[in-house]
Design goal:
Order of helices and strands: HHHHEHHHHEEHHHHEHHHHHH
Subcellular location: Cell membrane
Family: Belongs to the nucleobase:cation symporter-2 (NCS2) (TC 2.A.40) family. Azg-like subfamily.
Number of strands: 4
Structural class: mainly alpha
Keywords: Cell membrane, Membrane, Transmembrane, Transmembrane helix, Transport
Radius of gyration: 21 Å
Shape: globular
GO molecular function: purine nucleobase transmembrane transporter activity
Pfam families: Xan_ur_permease
Helix content: 55-70%
Largest sheet: 2 strands, antiparallel
Oligomer: single chain
Length: 433
């Protein structure tokens, strides 16, 4: 084992790798509760999604650790689960079973692109500024959902949105959770989001806002049935051959594509694994990610992707794939704690959504705002995601404006043919849908 993961070469040990794996798990354990709550909005069985989330995370992380040997963990992606539930299912009226088929197809396409080497060409076709805008825009969208779910932001007939009743006990609990999470993360606590949820749930129990577990069976229990979601993605392929589903699949693919690439570079750089500005075993890592999406869709969850929270484990010394193996083990162990879903209310999960939004918005600093031809499409990507309540619509509007501003600026030759193709696709998207 030590030889396979190159412990001596990378200057690490079992103890260090175990600690790193546990740290990474704690930093992203919130997804076990936030993802079921999000996909339940789409009509999916909450307990089954909990199992699918844990299993998809474990399988994907094992792939990454054993095949690519990277200390990177995977789980259903934040933002992509929101797109799945709020845009695809609730917005477009597409059944969640069909949406899962779309996730499966996007994973298969990603796998083919990785094996054929086309991945690099497509990544290079999308301007870096728009990649940053998409990431930050998804962060704003996630934070907006968190604010709505918590009741901090509500519907307002005069101004569309407005401040909620901040004297409401549930809203106050969510605000408390947000403050606690901010304090923990500001203090440098790696698993601040997860610990914030725990503290918020405990305070909610004290004040009667969250159900109190009265026995050990309310904390530890048997693994729930996954039958409500397992395999559903395989039975609805005949429903994905529409322009609307094409846009959905492209969005799944696009976001996972660049989210994974950015995460791998960030984690590998922090771990000192980048050699001569190149990412060793990048093909294996991307294959592991695509395989995780395929398996996750079969189990019954939205797109599985690499998590930037993996940097928490790297920060305490994780350097090899064994870190990921340990993290995967903890996700499997978590399967026995499904009864805790009952105490994770929207007031408990909302702060996590808002904080993740803050972290994702950090990509705004990389956008060239002083170039107007870049600022316009980037701004529309950012603005229209939360305002239209749709990640796909935000991407579409921004990608339509990009060729327009670049051509007017006299930079038509700098536009990759892929961007022209997307321009046409998104025009058709608005015309027909």
């Amino acid at each position: 084992m030590r030889k396979y993961f190159h412990f001596e070469e990378l200057g690490t040990s079992y103890r260090t790798e175990f600690t790193a794996g546990l740290t990474t798990f704690l930093a992203m354990a919130y997804i076990l509760f936030v993802n079921p709550a999000t996909l339940a909005e789409a009509g999916m069985d909450k307990d089954a999604v909990f199992v699918a989330t844990a299993v998809a995370a474990a399988v994907g992380t094992l792939f990454m650790g054993i095949i690519a040997k990277y200390p990177v963990a995977l789980a259903p992606g934040m933002g992509l689960n929101a797109f799945f539930a709020y845009t695809v299912v609730l917005g477009y009226g597409i059944p969640w079973q069909t949406a899962l088929s779309g996730v499966l197809v996007s994973g298969l396409i990603f796998m083919v692109l990785t094996l054929t080497g086309l991945r690099e060409r497509i990544i290079n076709a999308i301007p870096a500024n728009l990649k940053y805008a998409v990431g930050a825009g998804i962060g704003l969208f996630i934070a907006f959902i968190g604010l709505i779910n918590s009741g901090i932001v509500v519907d307002n007939s005069a101004t569309l949105v407005g401040i909620g009743d901040v004297t409401s006990p549930d809203v106050l609990l969510a605000i408390f959770g947000l403050v606690i999470s901010v304090v923990l993360l500001t203090k440098g606590v790696k698993a601040g989001i997860f610990y914030g949820m725990i503290i918020t749930a405990i305070v909610g129990m004290i004040f009667g806002l969250v159900p109190v577990p009265t026995s050990l069976n309310h904390i530890i229990g048997g693994i729930p049935s996954i039958s409500p979601t397992f395999g559903q993605a395989l039975f609805h392929f005949d429903e994905i051959f529409t322009l609307q589903m094409l846009v959905v699949i492209l969005t799944f693919l696009f976001v996972d594509f660049f989210d994974t690439a950015g995460t791998l570079v960030a984690v590998a750089t922090q771990a000192g694994l980048v050699k001569e500005n190149k990412l060793p075993r990048a093909g294996r890592a991307l294959f592991a990610d695509s395989a995780a999406t395929v398996s996750g869709a079969v189990f019954g969850t939205s797109t599985t992707t690499s998590y930037v929270e993996s940097t928490a484990g790297v920060g305490v010394g994780g350097r090899t794939g064994f870190t990921a193996v340990v993290t995967a083990g903890f996700f499997l162990l978590a399967l026995f704690f499904s009864p805790l879903l009952a105490i994770v209310t929207s007031a408990v999960t909302a702060p996590a959504l808002i904080i993740v939004g803050v972290l994702m918005a950090g990509q705004l600093k990389n956008i060239e705002w002083d170039r107007f031809e870049i600022a316009v499409p980037a701004f529309f990507v950012l603005l229209m995601m939360p305002l239209t309540y749709s990640i796909a619509t935000g991407i579409a509007i921004g990608f339509i404006f990009y060729p327009i501003t670049m051509i007017v600026k006299g930079k038509a030759k700098e536009i990759h043919p892929v961007m022209y193709g997307l321009f046409i696709v998104f025009i058709l998207y608005f015309v027909f849908l």
